[in-house]
Amino acid sequence: MTIGMLGAGAMARAIARHLIAGGSTVILSNRRGPDSLAPTVAELGPGARAGTVEDAAAQSIVFIAIPWSQLPSTLGRIPSWNNRIVVDTTNPIEPPHYTVADLGGRTSSEVVRDMVPGARLVKAFNTLTPAVIARDPREAGGHRVIFYSGDDEDAKAQVGALLAACGFAGVDLGDLATGARLQQFPGGPLPALNLIKLG
Ligand SMILES: NC(=O)c1ccc[n+]([C@@H]2O[C@H](COP(=O)([O-])OP(=O)(O)OC[C@H]3O[C@@H](n4cnc5c(N)ncnc54)[C@H](OP(=O)(O)O)[C@@H]3O)[C@@H](O)[C@H]2O)c1
Hints:
By secondary structure, the chain is α/β, with parallel strands linked by helices. The chain is built from 8 helices and 10 strands. It has one domain: Rossmann fold (3-Layer(aba) Sandwich).
């Protein structure tokens, strides 16, 4: 399976490493263009490729790992999402000022869902830092928990299978309205909770 990655920063690289170890090929993309990604691709090894945002967004599963402020302009460049699965790892806050975006009372992933019309959105990975995600998910006799939520059961099943292939314990929180509120950062109860599921 080839997976697209919008972003090639700390979060994107942490996730890509596990996806590649789990048997996927990952096309990473960034703002500066594919040539700037040569060191990242070399670091991640044979399963990693560099591409444009459009190349990454054309894959059947696309991770979003770019800053919140960049979402409208970047996602708006993609003409059609065609039922593809989009995994939202973002939080509505970013350096250097860490001002929380005005979401009009919605969760951040409901806002992102509206930016990818026709895609099947699954929220995942946003509750942990890249440093924690990068670690071996097999720890203390169990597997690191990654929460996920979304409205499309098939999309969630595919994301759950990907998580399992990487060694994570995926925990399905239900639909986006319910799960994304639990995962919401800041404000939800689950961010920064680093859990190991035993067994
Ligand atoms: N860091 C955390 O603790 C953490 C925790 C949970 C969730 N997240 C979420 O993860 C996402 C990524 O954060 P990060 O920490 O990985 O940030 P990061 O290390 O600063 O990386 C950001 C990446 O996004 C790319 N990018 C920026 N603007 C872009 C654009 N317009 N088009 C295409 N690519 C663009 C950057 O490319 P260039 O290098 O070319 O600019 C870079 O590869 C954010 O939404 C954040 O909220 C982060």
